[in-house]
Design brief:
By secondary structure, the protein is mostly helical. It has one domain. The protein has seven helices and no strands. The radius of gyration is 13 Å and the shape is globular. The protein starts with a helix and ends with a helix.
Length: about 90
């Protein structure tokens, strides 16, 4: 995915409040399942939320969000397990 910083900012600006929360929690190391439970969503609602989030950001998974949207300073603050997962891709 080759996207300029301006394009990334434009894509992030299109997110709904609920998508922004899910996006933020992904960076904090929480799973989609945790987000689903915390927001009190049904499974199909959660799938629609994440499908919309991924579509708007032009990615297909949480790993791609972390790979393409994490600034270096944020990545260095991630728990070691997330850093390890990203290195294995």
């Amino acid at each position: 995915m080759k996207t300029t910083p301006d394009e990334k900012e434009r894509r992030l600006a299109t997110l709904s409040d609920e998508e922004k929360e899910a996006y933020k929690w992904l960076f904090e190391g929480y799973s989609e399942g945790w987000t689903t439970e915390t927001l009190g969503l049904e499974a199909w609602d959660a799938k629609a939320l994440y499908d919309s989030l991924y579509r708007k950001l032009g990615v297909g998974s949480p790993r791609e969000i972390l790979r393409y949207y994490v600034p270096n300073k944020v990545l260095s603050e991630k728990p070691p397990s997330l850093l390890q997962d990203e290195d294995e891709i």
